[in-house]
Every structure is written in C-alpha cells, then in structure tokens.
Design brief:
heterodimer, A: 385 residues, 5-stranded antiparallel beta sheet, 1 helix, 33 strands, 3% helix, B: 241 residues, alpha/beta, 5-stranded parallel beta sheet, two-stranded antiparallel ribbon, 9 helices, 12% strand
Chain lengths: 385, 241
C-alpha cells in the first residue's frame, strides 16, 4: 500500500488533523509534537511520494495540546482555523494558518485567546466550525462546578464575529441541570446553522442544539440515548442537503462497534451499526459532497488496518477498502474528502506508534469537462471539510 | 449520625462550589465562585420545581411538605411560579437555621473581592447587581422549620401547619444518610399523615462522575430497592421509579 510517511515523531489529532488541501493541490495536516505543540505539515506536489515538511516552525501556536490530544481544525478558503487548549491562559487558544494559496503563504497568521475562559474544566475538549461569512464558533468545556458533592459542568460556545470575540460564553445544556456535560461534535448545517453536540456521561446520551445564523440557540435534540464517553472520537457532524432537508450524521462507539445516527431535519433517526469491530476509537465521518455520500473509517481490532466505509443517503453502510495498514494498535486517525489533482479522494492521516502516515483512496476520477456539476459540488464540499 | 452534616458554612462550601459567572469571565482573572447562594442555586430550584410539576401534575391545592429544603428555594418557585400555596418546609441544618433570616450580600462581596474586583464599583458592581438583589433580601422567602420528624410532636407540628400533608418531598437529602438512617427516616415521614406520595429527589450515582465518596451514592433503582413504597426521582435525568 502506497502510504507515505509524513513524520517519524509527529502525532495525529483525531478530528483535528484534516488532512486539508489548497488550490495548489498541496495537502496539509495539523499535527502535534511529542512536546504537545501544534504544528502544520505540508505535502509536496505528490502527497504519496514527495516529502512532507513542517511549515513556519518558528511561529507555532503557543497552545499546548493536552496529552489527551484534544484540538480541532477547520479549513475555509485559504485558511486553516485551529483551536487547542492553552495551558497558560487556562482556556482554548484560536490560531490560523495560511495555506500556499493565501496572501501570506504557509505561515501561522494569528493566535489569540478567547475573550472569556472557563474555570477548572473537567476536561480540555474544544471543537471549531465557521460560518460562511467567517464567524468562528468554538465549542468547549465550561467551568467546573460542584453541587451536593458531585462535580459537573456545562459545555459552552464562544463566538468571534467581525474579528472580535464576544464577551460572553453561552452554556449548552439546560439551565440549572446538574449534569456533567461535555462537547463531542460540531458541524455546519443548512443556512449557516451550527450544530453543537454534547454528551452527558452521567445521564447518558448525546444531544445537539442548533445555533442559528442570527445566534438564536435552539432547544436540545437527542441524537442518541446510548451512554457515551466524552472521548467518542467523533469530532465532526457532517452535513448534506437531501432535497432541501438538512441531514447531519453523528458517529459514535459502543464497546467496539462504530454506530451512526442521523439528525434528519433535526429529528434523530434509528442508529445504524457500521459493522466494523474496532479496538481503538478512530472514527470520523465526512461528507463527500456528491451523491449524498458520507464516509467513515475505523481500525479493525484484529488486523489494526484502517478501513473506509461509505453510506448511501439512506444511512446504509458498505466497505470501500483499506486506507492504512498498521502494525501497532496505538493508532489515531483523521480523514477528509477533497479534490486533489482532479480526483475526488478520501484522504487519511494515521498515526502508527509514533510515526504519521498519509494515504488516500481515489473515490471518483473526475473530469470537469465531463461532469462539471459534480466537480463543482465536490470542490465546495472540499472547502467545507 | 448522618454521613454528611451541614452544620456550618464550611460544610456547605465543601459540596457547593458554583460558577457565579455563567456568562464567562476575562482570561485576565479567575471567575467568581459562589457556594450555597441564592443567585446560583435559584436556577437549580427552578428546574427542579418545573420537573416536579411536569411529572406529577398535582392540583395546586395539594398540601406539600419539603424536607431537606435548605432555604426553601424550590418551594418558593413552586408557590410563586406554579401556584402551590400549601407548602411547609423543614431543614435541620444549624447553618440554615441560623442564617435564613440574613442576606448573602457579605458572601457575594467576598466572592467578588476574591477575584480582584470591587463589589462597589466598576465591573465588580455590575457583577454584584446580577448576583444580589438590592435591599434587605433574606436568603429564604419563607420560614424554614427545624423539625427532624423523629417524634410524634415534631411530625404533628408539620402536619398541623397545613391541617394535613398530601405529598412529602425530600430534596437531595437521603444520600447524606446510611441505609439504616434512610429506612428510619422513611418510617418517620410515613407517620406524618396518610400520605398520597413520598418522593425523594436525589442525585444519582454517576458512571464516570467525580463524586464525594462520603455520600451514600446509589441509582434511583438502588434506592427503590431499599424503600420500595417510596418514589425516587433522579436529579440527573429526571427518571422516576
């Protein structure tokens, strides 16, 4: 298998590494060092052959990614937007990286702490999504509280509009409820709606609230009532438009099986088990952007290989193939679907022991002259995800 | 003797440490923290009252006794927002009894000062305005009685306030007692009157939750097994058994 070693020392961040691609067909991965610093790696012209190198190492973000690997990134246009916990400020740090087609190419551009920070959160979870107008939404752990001897917290979101962080956090979870909520996913749906998903480990289940484009926060929608850990490794809520109906997919683990539940027009559908047996939580879903496909990958508990699965628009999953062959069980994995040199590919970054690898599967060899509509939609999705 | 007693402010502070700034705070200073104060506990009481009404839907004429009521904030909400006017409350905590007629202004001032703000000016004053109702606002809105129900006289004093009791509710109380003490208290509650229902609102044992091991943690199913004739309501997900 033609998987390319990206680095011998960098580590993959589940749900945060990408890979991302720019208009020059350079592939990027947001990784972390063994010292927990956030770094940007870029491929050469052929990501499966040419050497990958770190970009702008002297201006790495100041955030120190917690040992549990919680960080997140989101590409929009020529900028990769990142968030990771800043152990100095005690809150999430937002940073941006310009890809090679940016006016300031291959460089870290900005880094700033949020206007408000939580106090002593139970975890260090943080997720990021952008609206089409550039507003940044970060979902993260809230302030830890104690009530009648039980620690709990609500997760909160912070918002950057017009270049300024809002001075308030808005808790996600019901007011006054004494549960330990933790964020698990974020995604952009129809009409610039941002879905904020959070779990309640002691009450069980995952819910989501919609943050509308006018910043109205909707009521909670149950995604699944199955008890999840906060570390369910599903960091994106992929979206597609099913003939005018918004469909978001949430992936999660029960024991060793990957399951998916779809929010169709805000209503949870019956959960579907993908059927792969995993020993490691390496599950991330992405949208392909054409034909309403969604992709998901997971590591087989026996072979350690990372398999790719695809769903049809009815939520039925089938195997696509193997994207990485591995020899150790310590894999972390992140993936994406994007246009690369005229092909629609499923790209993955996988960590095997301490080394990081890139590989992709060509899903559709596209030709813009033969199928211009499909080509355009795929490019739009590549920009989203 | 209960597993956990609330005799002093320190006893409450050990188990109640709440975010006084749910709107967030600048990263240049710590956030304001409050203990068992009205400003941070009232949202909890509002949710509890709303769930009680939603789930049990008693007529507003129902005579309700709430034990372990603290400063009776849940009872206050039941009365003022839902129209339940026949409620009597009790809490035997010496701290509650000695402070229920006082305001919590000093506690709020101290919490604001602790993060480097002046409660009398600037941002500190803004925070205080949100956390503290001006004037001589007592912690309670109704007198909280000091009845432990351990004898007929105590039980009769509760019963006689309303001329009888229809529903008894303990408010996150039983986890502070051993199983034997809960069984004893259950018998005392049952002896107040011919009750329609006895409900124990309780924080459940949470899988993966960080919980003070001094308490008697159980699921509501575990409590039901201990006292089958009573009703148990989870304060985590509002399930009822």
């Amino acid at each position: 298998m033609a998987q390319k070693q990206v680095s011998t020392s960098m580590r993959v961040l589940v749900g945060a590494s990408g890979p991302w691609v720019d208009a020059n067909n350079r592939v990027y991965g947001i990784l972390k060092t063994t010292g927990n610093a956030l770094v940007a790696y870029k491929s050469g012209a052929d990501p499966l052959v040419d050497t990958w190198t770190e970009q702008d190492s002297s201006n790495r973000p100041t955030a120190t990614v917690p040992a549990n690997d919680y960080a997140a990134s989101w590409q929009q246009g020529t900028v990769i937007h990142c968030v990771a916990w800043d152990t100095t400020s005690g809150g999430p740090e937002y940073s941006t990286f310009g890809t090679s087609d940016n006016g300031t190419p291959d460089a870290w551009l900005t880094k700033d702490d949020l206007a408000v920070v939580p106090t002593a959160p139970i975890g260090n979870l943080c997720f990021i999504a952008l609206r089409s107008d550039g507003d940044v939404i970060i979902l993260h752990d809230g302030t830890r509280e104690k009530l009648m001897g039980t620690d709990y917290q609500r997760c909160v979101y912070s918002r950057k509009e017009g270049g300024t962080w809002t001075a308030t956090e808005v808790a996600v979870g019901n007011t006054g409820e004494q549960n330990h909520y933790a964020p698990v996913s974020i995604g952009r749906g129809a009409s610039d709606r941002i879905w904020l998903a959070f779990s309640s480990p002691n009450a069980g289940g995952v819910s989501a609230r919609a943050l509308e484009s006018d910043n109205t926060l909707g009521t909670g929608k149950t995604i699944t009532s199955v008890i999840n850990s906060t570390d369910n490794e599903s960091h994106l809520l992929p979206y597609y438009d099913d003939d005018g109906v918004e469909v978001m997919t949430h992936s999660w683990l029960t024991g060793t099986a990957i399951n998916t539940t779809r929010l169709r027009d805000g209503v949870a559908q019956t959960a579907v088990s993908i059927g792969i047996t995993t020993s490691q939580p390496v599950c991330t879903s992405v949208t392909a952007g054409n034909a309403k496909k969604m992709y998901c990958s997971g590591k087989d508990s026996t072979s350690s290989d990372v398999y790719v699965y695809v769903s049809d628009d009815e939520g039925s999953w089938s195997s696509v193939g193997t994207i990485h062959t591995l020899v150790t069980s310590s894999a972390k994995h992140d993936n994406n679907v994007f246009m690369l040199n005229g092909n629609l590919v499923y790209g993955g970054l996988t960590q095997d022991s301490t080394s990081t690898y890139y590989n992709h599967i060509v899903l559709i060899a596209l030709s813009s002259s033969r199928n211009p509509i499909l080509f355009q939609r795929a490019v739009e999705r590549a920009a989203y995800w | 003797m209960p597993l956990k007693q609330y005799n002093s402010k320190a006893d409450f502070d050990a188990d109640y440490d709440l975010n006084g700034e749910p709107e967030g705070h600048p990263n240049t200073r710590p956030g304001i923290r409050l203990g068992y104060c009205r400003a941070v506990m009232l949202p909890v009481a509002q949710l509890r009252a709303a769930k009680l009404v939603e789930i049990f839907a008693w007529p507003t004429s129902t005579r309700i006794f709430m034990i372990g009521a603290g400063y009776a904030w849940t009872a206050e909400v039941l009365e003022q927002q839902y129209g339940y006017s026949n409620i009597v409350t009790s809490d035997t905590s010496p701290y509650v009894q000695s402070t229920q007629d006082q305001t919590d202004e000093a506690e709020i001032n101290a919490a604001i000062s602790a993060v480097g703000l002046n409660p009398a000016s600037g941002e500190g004053a803004t925070k205080k305005a949100r956390l503290y109702s001006p004037g001589n606002r007592r912690r309670h809105s109704r007198s909280v009685r000091n009845e432990d129900l351990s004898n007929g006289g105590s039980r009769n004093r509760i019963k006689n306030v309303l001329g009888g009791v229809d529903v008894a509710i303990s408010e996150d109380l039983i986890l502070a007692f051993s199983d034997a003490e809960v069984l004893q208290a259950a018998g005392w509650i049952d002896a107040i009157d011919t009750l329609d229902q006895v409900i124990h609102m309780v924080t459940e044992l949470g899988a993966g939750a960080n919980q003070n091991p001094v308490f008697n943690w159980k699921t509501i199913e575990g409590w039901k097994a201990l006292v089958p004739s009573h009703t148990f309501m989870s304060l985590n997900d509002w399930a009822v058994v």
